[in-house]
Design a protein that fits this description.
Elements: E1 2-6, E2 9-15, E3 23-27, H1 38-43, E4 49-53, H2 70-83, E5 89-94, H3 96-107, E6 112-118, H4 127-140, H5 142-150, H6 156-161, H7 163-174, H8 178-190, E7 204-209, H9 217-227, E8 231-235, H10 242-245, H11 247-258, H12 268-273, E9 278-279
Parallel strand pairs: 3-4, 3-5, 5-6, 6-7, 7-8, 8-9
Antiparallel strand pairs: 1-2, 2-4
């Protein structure tokens, strides 16, 4: 566990420290923590230098006291990378993490060698629903509503096979800072990247969960159309958190999307291979 002061806030992060390897930066979903990447980063050991950080008020990061935008969270990522003297990396983000990835693609495209955006969208859900959830969190508290919210993260097969994991992630959600969670709900209500992503040049791959109720396949298909060159991978028997539900297939998809050891700009071959469609990497 390590900490850094970024943009006036303390941020908790992990760094595998393999400085001779290309870097891969991970951004987790709302209400979870950087621990969602543990099984994946274990599988990637020796192939990528893996860095994961906690969003504000999540895990070991300080909470929010003011509104933030996706671009503000992208600035946190940039500050963390600067602290670690990393000039270029691959990026992986799930849900709100994928929204941060879109902000990075727009704000600092030269920073990213490739991006894998999972269970996310150019816009996610409806603004009214996010504002309603923010109000509920402030009024009732996450400790009260966490069991309801965490049910949407995982496919039924996972919940039946791993009840202790479901319980553990529900506890993690319940311990998340209420105000920070509410402000991030408001961020999602206000974020809409539709019509802004067509000029993105970095290779982008999208991953959808076949059983995801929060960001269904259609949401990822719409994002693929926004990005033009993005290809879409769909994982069966997975809902909203593929890194937890099927870390093996997810890790394979990451390596397929970003290559094993290539942080440089994509060559002509990769550019030719990029295209829209649906595939299962398993």
């Amino acid at each position: 566990m390590a900490f850094v002061e970024c943009n006036g806030r303390t941020i908790g992060y992990d760094d595998s420290g393999e400085a001779d390897l290309p870097a891969m930066l991970f951004a987790h979903p709302l209400g979870m923590s950087r621990q969602v990447w543990t099984e994946v980063t274990t599988r990637l050991r020796g192939r990528w230098r893996c860095i994961a950080w906690d969003l504000p008020g999540h895990g070991n990061s300080a909470g929010l006291t003011r509104p933030v935008s996706a671009h503000d969270l992208a600035a946190d990522a940039q500050a963390l990378l600067a602290h670690l003297h990393i000039e270029r990396c691959a990026f992986v983000g799930t849900s709100i993490g994928g929204v941060i990835g879109q902000a990075l693609l727009l704000d600092t495209p030269a920073l990213l060698s490739c991006a894998v955006l999972t269970n996310t969208g150019a816009t996610i859900g409806q603004p009214e629903a996010w504002h309603t959830r923010a109000t509920r969190v402030r009024d009732e508290g996450l400790a009260q509503i966490a069991p309801e919210l965490s049910q949407r993260w995982f496919a039924d097969t996972y919940k039946q096979a791993r009840p202790a994991s479901l319980a553990g992630w529900t506890i993690q959600l319940a311990r998340t800072d209420d105000e920070s969670y509410a402000r991030l709900c408001e961020l999602l209500a206000e974020t809409d990247f539709r019509g802004q992503l067509a000029g993105v040049e970095a290779p982008v791959a999208l991953i959808a969960g076949a059983e995801d109720p929060a960001t269904p396949i259609a949401t990822l298909q719409a994002l693929a159309e926004e990005l033009h060159s993005a290809r879409l991978i769909t994982l069966d028997h997975v809902a909203h958190v593929p890194s937890v539900e099927d870390s093996a297939a997810f890790s394979e998809a990451l390596c397929s999307a970003c290559g094993e050891h290539d942080p440089s700009p994509p060559d002509d071959k990769r550019a030719r291979e990029t295209g829209s469609g649906v595939a299962d990497p398993r």
